[in-house]
Amino acid sequence: MEKKIAFFDAKPYDRLAFDTVNSDFGFSITYIDAHLNAQTVRLTTGFDAVCAFVNDILDGAVIGQLAANGIHIAGLRCAGYNNVDFKAAFGKVHVVRVPAYSPHAIAEHAVALMLSLNRKIHKAYHRTRDGNFSINGLLGFDMYGKTAGVVGTGKIGQCLITILKGFGMRVLAYDPKPNQDYAREAGITFVSLEQLYSESDILSLHCPLTPETEHMINVQAISMMKNNIMIINTGRGKLIDTEALINALKSGKAGSAGLDVYEEESDYFFEDRSTEMIRDDILARLLTFPNVLITSHQAFFTEEALTNIAQTTLGNFKEYFDGGWLKNEICYRCGAVCPKEQNKRCF
Ligand code: NAD
Description:
Elements: E1 4-7, H1 12-22, E2 28-31, E3 49-52, H2 60-68, E4 73-76, H3 86-89, E5 94-96, H4 103-119, H5 121-129, E6 147-151, H6 155-166, E7 170-174, H7 180-186, E8 189-190, H8 193-199, E9 202-205, H9 219-224, E10 229-233, H10 242-251, E11 254-259, H11 281-286, E12 292-294, H12 303-321
Parallel strand pairs: 1-2, 1-3, 3-4, 4-5, 6-7, 6-9, 7-8, 9-10, 10-11, 11-12
Helix pairs in contact: 1-12, 4-6
Bound molecules: nicotinamide-adenine-dinucleotide.
């Protein structure tokens, strides 16, 4: 029998990508505009699976209700899973994700933010369209020879490093699990966070959001940074204490910021709120800076990534319904670092 998937936070581009790929799978997908949370979980009655995205909430209450509704598989159509209480999920609901769909998409977007901020493309675009061909105030710097600090050298961090090395940048990296063979091959140096902060002209965040990394960019971290640093965040919003960033931008300590994620993004990002006032004063303040570029969690948004996301997500559901090994299941104990081989997982 056709398995029924309740697909939350559905957008037109999701429907297009999933409907196209689903012709090979034959699931019955019901697209639901709402986020999955404690209020909307009742909509899952009668379904066999749920599909969720970055701002859906799979906390203990939602997991409990899913299990009570007979749903034992939740497929995240994203890599990050900080929105899942996976300890609550253990033994009740299998949670699968898309560990890699296009690390290039996110790395390339991080570079787009860097270049736009550096060469002030966002300002130039409006000037020339307004008949203003002055370049006064648009002065940038050569990327060549500057130092980039990359926090997190997983799939995305490594793609970014390849691009930055192509610019002729010196790259410093921090990762709690530094791979020295990789560092030698890539021509980069693993350093402490303190050294990375104090020597980087551009800082880019590519680590997961965990209790250890929450607000890692705070007043203390910023105080260690080089004056005029550019801070890029395509990881997760809560990696940065936004009020501390705003103060650093106001004082001139931080030179610019490119943010694809924001700690309170769930009420705004992915939605058209252009006819309303912004009630979030911190977001509104960020949007007033000429040296801040905000994109709405779009780093993943390439054709290749969307197709890969749909293929892996529906493949994850197929594995579950076929009774197979769930290679993309989140480990309830260690998360992404759990050994991937069957029977070697730590749960
Ligand atoms: P990955 O698992 O391949 O790499 C993460 C790296 O971070 C690993 O090398 C890990 O050792 C390291 N790390 C763990 N804890 C750390 C810490 N405390 N400090 C520094 N490094 C640490 O993950 P990935 O595919 O490269 O993705 C990285 C993050 O990017 C994801 O967790 C997700 O939050 C975010 N992401 C954002 C988007 C977007 O559209 N903006 C899309 C995909 C992923």
